[in-house]
Design brief:
Length: 550
């Protein structure tokens, strides 16, 4: 689009003013507090047309005179309005991998008057274009073609339409500093911060009801005449997505299996597994989970209580393990990522434990420890309560729940979580109090070192072992464990003898030592601290071989 006269005048006016106050674009200044969009999708033409309103709040320290509105580079800006008045916009294609095309069309909007810090402005927006399959951002990174095609599957197409939100397709206006996928973890970090900033935002969209097809979204949806009305409530966790396809559903109390033509037999197997699920954290799911069949070869994608994946033949326990994560989201509607995602991953590890035993669950945890230990050791640690990086709000949170379960007992934890109410969770300490009142145990220190603050991970070492024969012919073994890390934790201590293992638990404060005494029937062979249930930076000094008796 050509620069409009008003825009040029606007810029000139500022640049010639006596104070050198040229308006500067700060893409992070505004938070989109409200979206209200009318969306027309035409699968046959692969096209999308959107008009509606967005409300922006200036969360920066300075007054702002320019707003940047970005949509996918395959979409074209028609207008940006204030009330009925069109505003001057200048559109530029900006390279950014927040969109599958590797670029966004950015409308720079000259505001009629500056928006003060804390102030809001409502803008009318209209844009349209096509959203075709595009894996160029991944192929630019030399990702093998088939992997790129599996991952970046978003498209509007006659046979199957599926479009995910920012991070995949900017089908609604956003404003983010340009980021490239190849730039380490930066894009995911920026998207994490963006989501956290928009956790309280409201997103309402009305789609034209597609003829002869089903339109699904990951928000609350209802049909109203010829519209499908959707409200997306958790922008902090889930980017709004929509699917339009020839889908039919098998439904039961826990959820729905949406399947494509020819997928009915497989869907029946999935539905049978789904119907057996018993929620452990609540008495009943808050909402039904949606499992949506993707075309074969497309990569799985989870978005809260919606899971998109090809339906594959698999043994029942495997199907169940995959479902537990999504079903947990449908049962606990927390807006806090460490609770919402942490519990879902924890539930998966519990399901594995239930099916295959604790050892298998610990192996599942162990696969995730190195990434967390690396993130903590590089000084990129985030306080769990406000973490925006997945390695914390998913992986570390999963461990925190696992440790709480080991400390309080499974039944107590489940009873406490059944009382969890997202609408009452207003203070960071809400969950701590809930768990304390159910268990009668003080958890202040644990939450302080693991949830409210990032203290890194513990680093245990078995410092000394003293076996002493007791009067009954067995041994009382005194074990001293040192924790060189800055986070305290309760860890299992396992004493091996020639016939059996005996396990006890010991709490070792940060930068301190603790001693526990354990009775075993025979002279001990070795002592190990931490079976992998506590994430740790260095596990090479966790074993201690007991010298033979003198
Ligand atoms: Zn999840």
């Amino acid at each position: 689009m050509k620069q409009s006269l008003a825009f040029i005048l606007f810029l000139t006016c500022y640049s010639t003013a006596q104070e050198p106050a040229k308006p500067q674009l700060d893409r992070d200044a505004f938070t989109f507090t409200k979206y209200d969009l009318q969306v027309q999708v035409a699968p046959a033409r692969q096209s999308l047309a959107v008009r509606g309103r967005v409300v922006l709040r200036n969360d920066s320290e300075k007054s702002q005179s320019i707003v940047a509105l970005q949509v996918s580079s395959s979409l074209t800006w028609a207008s940006v309005r204030r009330g009925d008045a069109p505003l001057a916009i200048e559109t530029t294609k900006v390279e950014s991998d927040i969109d599958h095309a590797g670029a966004v069309n950015e409308a720079m909007v000259a505001l009629p008057e500056p928006v003060a810090p804390g102030g809001t402005i409502e803008l009318g927006v209209a844009y349209s274009g096509t959203i075709a399959f595009n894996s160029s951002r991944l192929e630019a990174l030399d990702t093998p073609r088939d992997v790129a095609r599996r991952s970046d599957w978003d498209r509007i197409a006659p046979e199957f339409t599926a479009v995910r939100g920012v991070g995949y397709v900017a089908w609604y206006p956003v404003s983010l500093a340009p980021v490239k996928l190849g730039d380490g973890n930066r894009m995911f970090a920026e998207l994490g911060v963006w989501r956290a900033r928009h956790a309280e935002s409201v997103f309402h969209a009305e789609f034209d009801k597609p003829e002869g097809k089903v339109l699904l979204t990951n928000g609350q949806r209802r049909e109203d005449g010829d519209k499908v009305v959707c409200d997306f409530a958790r922008l902090g966790l889930e980017a709004p997505l929509f699917v339009i396809a020839d889908l039919a559903a098998l439904e039961n109390l826990n959820g729905r299996i949406w399947y494509l033509p020819g997928g009915q037999e497989m869907a029946k197997e999935y539905a049978a597994v789904l119907s057996k699920w018993q929620p452990s954290f609540t008495t009943a799911p808050l909402q039904k989970a949606d499992f949506v069949q993707l075309p074969e070869g497309w990569a799985n994608y989870e978005s809260g209580p919606m899971m998109l994946a090809p339906l594959r033949k698999a043994p029942e326990p495997e199907i169940a393990q995959g479902m537990v994560h999504t079903l947990t989201h449908a049962s606990v509607a927390s807006r806090r990522p460490w609770i919402y995602e942490g519990l879902a991953h924890f539930a998966q590890s519990r399901a594995i434990e239930g099916q295959l035993g604790r050892e298998a669950a610990l192996r599942f945890l162990a696969q995730r420890t190195p990434a967390l230990a690396l993130a903590e050791s590089t000084g990129a640690g985030q306080d769990l309560i406000k973490a925006t990086d997945e390695v914390f709000y998913r992986t570390k949170a999963m461990f925190v729940w696992w440790m709480l379960r080991d400390m309080l007992g499974g039944a107590t934890l489940e009873k406490a979580l059944a009382k969890y109410r997202a609408d009452l969770d207003k203070e960071p300490s809400y969950v701590q109090r809930l768990l304390e009142s159910e268990s009668g145990k003080g958890l202040e220190q644990f939450f302080d070192e693991w949830v409210y603050r990032d203290r890194g991970l513990p680093d245990f070492k078995v410092e000394a072992v003293f076996p002493r024969q007791n009067l009954r012919g067995g041994y009382l073994v005194s074990v001293t464990v040192e924790n060189q890390g800055a986070a305290g934790a309760e860890a299992p201590v396992v004493i091996k003898t020639k016939v059996s293992d005996v396990t006890a638990r010991v709490f070792v404060p940060a930068k301190d030592k603790a001693t526990t005494r354990i009775e075993v029937p025979l002279y001990p062979v070795s002592v190990t601290v931490n079976d992998g249930s506590v994430p740790e930076t260095d596990t090479t000094d966790n074993d201690f071989t007991v010298p033979p008796p003198k």
